[in-house]
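User: Study the shape:
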Amino acid sequence: MTTPANPQPRLVVVDDEPTIRELLATSLTFAGFAVSTAASGTEALASVQQHEADLIVLDVMMPGMDGFEVTRRLRTQGITTPVLFLTARDSSVDAIEGLTAGGDDYVTKPFSLEEVIARIHAILRRTRSGAAGISDNAIIRVGDLELNEDTSEVHRAGTLVDLSPTEFRLLHYLMDNEGRVVSKSHILEAVWQYNWYGDATIVESYISYLRRKLDPLGNGPMIHTKRGFGYMLKAVSS
């Protein structure tokens, strides 16, 4: 039997509400995905390990183990499968908590199926093809900062920096644009690959995460805020 050239992306849909779970599974199957389902956090962990999913659609509010804890456990186990959160809590604090836990995006309930599918396609595009503007060279260096595309590792002043996939893509984009001011809207389009409808909080949060991880390791900050314009990464002057 010949393997298809473009196999269906495999999704795991996790929700403790049977109606929502089955609606999503049916709709996503119709949209061209191979779908497995789970009704709890424990089932989700087992299903991801069993099915080698390309993406997890994960409800946040579940009894026992919520979606944030599921994601933390996956990341602790070294599983980097992208996560799209489904949340009924429409606040930037909850969204940032989920993304900090290792999620890639979120949709608030009630949601449209078209929006869920669009978000899934956006996540798969950026996680499969990488960030926009990738350099032809495997290693990018700015001052004492080094990013290796082949190994997905970052070092500053010789020290390995532990970054999430989204932090890595954001840093990659900033390093590709060394010495240039990039706006929040351009960062959203390049790193997240769609417009967040004016909500730039996520960019500010991830810039903060990068600074906390990078600044203590070198001779000074490398990511600079240009108020009213955006951000710029440049080497520290000696």
